[in-house]
Amino acid sequence: MAWIFLIVGGVFEAIFSFSLGKISLTSGKEMVLWIVSFVVAVSLSMYFLYKAIDTGLGVGVSYAVWAAIGAAGSVLMGIIFLNEPVSFWRVFFLSLLIISVIGLNVSTKAA
User: What are the pLDDT tens digits along the chain (111 aa)?
Assistant: First the structure.
């Protein structure tokens, strides 16, 4: 169950990051909606990260996985919804991030 909490928390991290980006691109009532989205997503992200740690995952691995899910999700949402550029190097380093988090998890279990 801890891993489900962690994945959900990481998804909400990507949502709050995306919401933060949208806040800077909007004004008026639309901006208020994105601010509310940001606050709700931050709250849920932190709650699910806490639940993952509270249910038995280590703080270091939890934070690394949470941050990686959020970073990968933020990059993908930027590419899909904000027309951010796709390049070999962005894909390469995003893949490297994901591989590094997997390696951290595997090495923690082996220790």
Answer: 999 999 999 999 999 999 998 998 999 999 999 999 999 999 999 999 999 999 998 898 899 999 999 999 999 999 999 899 999 999 999 999 989 988 888 887 766
Provide long-range contacts, Cβ within 8 A and 24+ apart, for 91-100. 97/68, 97/71, 97/72, 98/68, 98/72, 100/68
- The answer to whether the beta carbons of residues 21 and 33 sit under 8 Å apart is no
State the residue range of the domain holding 44.
Answer: 2-110
> How many domains in the chain?
1
